[in-house]
UniProtKB/TrEMBL annotation:
Coiled-coil boundaries: none
Region feature (Disordered): 118-137
Protein name: CubicO group peptidase (Beta-lactamase class C family)
Transmembrane segments: none
Residues in DUF7586 domain copies: 352-435
Taxonomic lineage from the root: Bacteria, Bacillati, Actinomycetota, Actinomycetes, Pseudonocardiales
């Protein structure tokens, strides 16, 4: 067990949580880590790997967390203009029954295709080439209308791995190695295990005995769950999911990946999926990351970007250990035992006087809004009182602002000025904001009654 600057009571609570899980759920071993502000804050291990407790450098198979690496590779292609998310799959990989599905639908598990690849259970079988796999995929593999609902598909990520390979002219694995793992210095994330590593086991349901699980190369299905990794490496990956991208992706792109595209449980929205990232709501926190399972292994990586915290949990057992719940609990223990202190307030060291002149009260019709100046020249437009639309805006080089969230996300805010340069009104996606309710001197659509208020 290791930690940096945690209170002894917090360390004990974290260790106690994983100790209870490993003992009660009979895991041969369990390893976990907590991340805050970009560093591995605590790690612990229970059970045995090669006769000793697992460490932050012990490899486990991470299963479907592999999909997040494939998704980042796809989004890098999108950001470079080499792939368009609304294009169909056959734009890049022609000749398959999946051709009419969009790249975005495949990323978000909204394509409607079957969960598993046709043939034998791919997780326990030697893999085949994409050509062989594609030949087995027919129209019957489409289970739902594309875009209708969330339907998790390992086959879809096998297809995305092939897309990455076709566009880059290299295997998906080489692309991940060169473009992601190497820049992030994730040296212990590999397609096959390298010592020290845990062995994969199935635990007998009615006796304390074990059965070894196979670990084949899944070949064309490998993008769905092939990789092995460590707590140290996935702590770095948790930082990327939270926005510290190390220039592998723009932080805005990762934020886009964290936006919910589909939800698993529409009535309550406790779980869902973005562009390659799994999403969950837990105790008022919106978490992003991914779960993973392969025969002999379970894994989860969750991040809470708002508080720059995360957790990673591994177990070398086929079933039984609730690693997603453990990871969420570790985040909660840290948040409740040692809550983050808010950043100290400090006045701006510099500001644009023209921006300061924009601050204060504005009106959309009769509805009052406050406009506040933020660091970096950003502005925040929010309702005064109850209800209404609020958004933050980031300045653009042309003197406009782009909405970042809420109703106005992606919309443009422009300042309209009088001939003397003074501000006349704000134009936000055709909505006119004035200094007084329905200012008759502004360009209010439909005009303002000349008799005024009465």
């Amino acid at each position: 067990m290791s930690s940096e600057n945690l209170l002894p009571a917090t360390e004990h609570a974290l260790l106690h949580r994983i100790a209870v899980e490993q003992s009660a759920k009979r895991a041969p071993s369990l390893a976990a880590a907590v991340i805050r502000d970009g560093r591995l804050l605590w790690s612990g291990g229970r059970g045995q790997v090669d006769g000793q407790a697992p460490t932050a450098d012990t490899q486990y198979r991470i299963g479907s967390i592999t999909k997040t690496f494939v998704a980042v590779a796809v989004m890098r292609l999108r950001d470079e203009g080499k792939v368009e998310l609304n294009d169909t799959f056959d734009t890049y990989v022609p000749g398959s029954a999946l051709g009419g599905l969009t790249v975005a639908q495949l990323l978000a598990h909204a394509s409607g295709i079957t969960a598993e690849s046709p043939g034998s259970w791919w997780e326990r079988s030697p893999g085949t080439s994409w050509s062989e796999l594609s030949d087995r995929v027919g129209p019957g593999e489409l289970k739902h209308r594309p875009g209708r609902r969330f339907h998790y598909s390992n086959l879809g990520y096998g297809a995305l791995g092939e897309l990455v390979s076709r566009v880059r002219g290299a295997s998906w694995l080489d692309v991940v190695r060169e473009e992601i793992l190497r820049p992030l210095e994730m040296t212990r994330t590999t397609p096959m295990p390298e010592k020290p590593h845990a062995e994969g086991w199935a635990v007998h349901p009615w006796a304390d005995v074990l059965l070894p699980e196979p670990a084949h190369d899944a070949v064309s299905m490998a993008p769905a769950g092939q990789l092995w990794s460590t707590l140290n490496d996935l702590a770095r990956w948790a930082r990327l999911v939270g926005g510290d991208t190390g220039e592998v992706l723009h932080p805005d792109t990762v934020a886009e990946m964290r936006e919910p595209i589909v939800v698993e449980d529409g009535d309550h929205w406790l779980g869902g999926y973005g562009l390659g990232l799994q999403l969950a709501r837990n105790r008022g926190r919106r978490l992003a990351g991914h779960t993973g399972s392969m025969p002999g292994f379970l894994a989860t990586l969750w991040t809470h970007p708002e508080q720059a915290t995360g957790a990673v949990v591994f177990a070398n057992t086929t079933s039984g250990v609730e690693v997603p719940a453990v990871a969420a609990d570790l985040i909660d223990i840290l948040a409740t035992s040692e809550p983050r202190l808010p950043a100290e307030w400090a006045p701006l060291t510099e500001y644009d006087p023209e921006l300061l002149a924009m601050t204060g009260t504005w009106y959309w019709g009769p509805a009052a809004r406050s406009l506040k100046l933020m660091p970096g020249g950003w502005i925040n437009l929010a309702p005064i009182g109850v209800g209404g639309r609020a958004s933050r805006f980031r300045p653009e080089p042309d003197g406009t602002w782009i909405g970042l969230d809420g109703y106005y996300a992606g919309e443009t805010l422009r300042v309209v000025r009088h001939a003397d340069g003074s501000i006349r009104h704000l134009d936000l996606a055709t909505f006119i904001f004035t200094r007084t309710p329905y200012d008759p001197s502004a360009e209010i659509p439909g005009g303002v009654d000349p008799s005024g208020w009465h």
